[in-house]
């Protein structure tokens, strides 16, 4: 058992290091970016579009914060608005499908996916999902009252304050990553050595088959569903070292996780803004299931690269 835990520990450290090389520079840039006029420009750009989804113009800042920073920033902005239940659900659907674009897209690219395609799928499904919910609810955009505060620009903030914020944000990101990834890899290593993963994969066979996936995708799928896209990608990176996934299955797996990941955390954080968690979870899961199954059937038998070697190309992370 000691040898198993040591192997799991080093697998967790290796995965944390791999993901940190992606997350740290992006976290650094975004921490500085939020103290510039860029976010205000984004809000100005998207405000007219909000009416298409039955949302007030002020909701643009919630979308911008969720898309380009994270869900917690978006939730903070939602608290400052007096949103009704329909508007809160529409925004939640939009943000659940598409959030933290820079970090999660960089992670997806790290395992060999096309970054623009990932962004297109997430943004497209997020906007379409919000639009369909708007049509189903039949709500009309209204005025809301709220305050967001003023942006503290870099030139108005002491240098030490900025350096401290950047350092604490990066440390928090890496610490949270390690706190989840290392224990997760330890557990997976133990389960793998005890051959318990084979039993889990067998139970998931019907779901995997429906989505065009084989049993090698079972553990990355579970990791992404419960721990998030970035952490699921970390498990994929580690898993593909031993059992490479064909490119087609890798795309199908990540498309499912792009649309439905971190189902516990991402659902619970919307409850304080009066969103029905079961509705939100059902919309995400069904959308992921249907889209992945449809794409699996569309791509079935297709030779993506034109050669058998490329179609079965493994993802190699250096």
UniProtKB/TrEMBL annotation:
Q: Does this UniProt record's set of keywords contain Chaperone?
A: no
Q: Which UniProt keywords apply?
A: Membrane, Transmembrane, Transmembrane helix
List the Pfam families hit by this protein, alphabetically: Gate (PF07670)
Which intervals hold domain Nucleoside transporter/FeoB GTPase Gate?
Answer: 17-103, 175-262
Indicate the transmembrane segments per the record. Answer: 62-82, 88-107, 119-137, 168-189, 219-238, 250-271, 277-299
Q: Does the keyword Secreted apply?
A: no
The name this protein goes by in its record:
Nucleoside transporter/FeoB GTPase Gate domain-containing protein
Source species of the chain: Tumebacillus amylolyticus
């Amino acid at each position: 058992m000691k040898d198993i835990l040591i192997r799991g520990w080093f697998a967790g450290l290796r995965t944390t290091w791999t993901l940190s090389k992606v997350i740290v520079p992006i976290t650094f840039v975004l921490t500085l970016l939020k103290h510039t006029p860029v976010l205000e420009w984004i809000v100005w750009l998207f405000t007219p579009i909000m009416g298409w989804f039955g949302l007030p113009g002020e909701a643009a800042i919630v979308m911008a914060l969720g898309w380009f920073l994270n869900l917690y920033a978006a939730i903070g902005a939602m608290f400052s608005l007096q949103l009704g239940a329909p508007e809160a659900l529409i925004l939640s659907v939009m943000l659940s499908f598409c959030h933290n674009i820079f970090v999660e897209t960089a992670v997806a690219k790290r395992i060999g996916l096309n970054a623009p395609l990932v962004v297109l799928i997430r943004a497209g499904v997020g906007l379409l999902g919000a639009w369909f919910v708007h049509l189903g609810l039949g709500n009309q955009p209204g005025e809301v009252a709220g305050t967001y505060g003023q942006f503290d620009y870099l030139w108005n903030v002491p240098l030490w304050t900025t350096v401290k914020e950047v350092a604490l944000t990066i440390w928090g990101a890496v610490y949270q990553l390690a706190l989840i990834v290392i224990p997760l890899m330890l557990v997976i290593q133990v389960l793998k050595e005890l051959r318990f993963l084979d039993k889990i994969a067998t139970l998931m066979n019907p779901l995997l088959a429906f989505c065009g996936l084989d049993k090698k995708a079972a553990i990355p799928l579970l990791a992404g569903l419960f721990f998030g896209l970035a952490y699921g990608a970390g498990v994929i990176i580690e898993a593909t070292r031993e059992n490479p996934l064909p490119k087609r299955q890798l795309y199908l797996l990540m498309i499912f996780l792009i649309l439905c990941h971190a189902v516990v955390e991402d659902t619970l954080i919307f409850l304080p803004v009066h969103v029905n968690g079961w509705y939100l979870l059902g919309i995400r899961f069904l959308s992921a299931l249907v889209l992945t199954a449809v794409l699996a059937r569309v791509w079935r038998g297709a030779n993506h690269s034109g050669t058998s070697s490329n179609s079965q190309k493994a993802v190699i992370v250096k």
